[in-house]
Amino acid sequence: MNDRYFRPVKVLLPSEEVARLISDAIRSGDFPVGSRLPSERRLAEKMEVSRPTVREAVRILVEQGVLAVKPGSGGGIFVASEDVPFDIIVDMPQMRPGEIDDALEMRRLILPWVVQIASRYAGDDDFERMRSAIVFGRASLPPEGEKISAQAVNLVIIATMRFDLAMAEATRNVLVRQLMDQLLHWVEPLRHRTLHTREDLELSLDLTNEMLEAIELADAERIDRITERRLSILETALEQHTGRRMRRHRR
């Protein structure tokens, strides 16, 4: 019997799904700290849910320290923190080594194409989003000599995620943007297990900065070289973490 279609089902409450969508918007950089979200009524209309559902979603994120609600004429729903874990709403299922292997193979197929297309189509707004992601990541690093916190790791991961999403946006292909978002969610647990030191975090940001420079110059050879480095780092980390070689390295 072929059972690949039958997987564990996780059903979110409407309020949890709304909270997840708001979290994703913050993680993606659309709403930085201090920015005001659309009104409760506007959010309800956009997501086609009731206002009490939105109110409950906001309450969940206020309890998590992500949002703050200010009353009065100048009040509203404001972003209090961009340190939003990807599994803040619901525990993500643990991917088996083979599934992570699949995700990284898919990343190897998609990322080189995305970078090359972004180098052709990216405009000033795209480059600004990429630069902003790197600046955000640099600002998340603690001072020299201080211990690397889980928060710093999470924020640097968010920064590189924003950079990759900005590249995907630059392809002008909505489906590519959605696929990149899904890929980043798949590999994020591995990144949390492999980024431990300041050197790890700085290397991650340095490579995104080198990739930005290569895209701006439309230097295909340099783009290929840096893309391979970014791909290899996670693939090597997977092999070290699991003690097994990826399929592509066994052939």
TrEMBL record:
UniProt-listed CDD domains: WHTH_GntR
Keyword Transcription annotated: yes
GO molecular function, one term: DNA binding
Entry keywords, A to Z: DNA-binding, Transcription, Transcription regulation
Pfam families: FCD (PF07729), GntR (PF00392)
UniProt domain HTH gntR-type: residue ranges: 12-82
PROSITE patterns xrefs: HTH_GNTR
Coiled-coil ranges (or none): none
Protein's UniProt name: GntR family transcriptional regulator
Native species: Microbaculum marinisediminis
Organism phylogeny: Bacteria, Pseudomonadati, Pseudomonadota, Alphaproteobacteria, Hyphomicrobiales
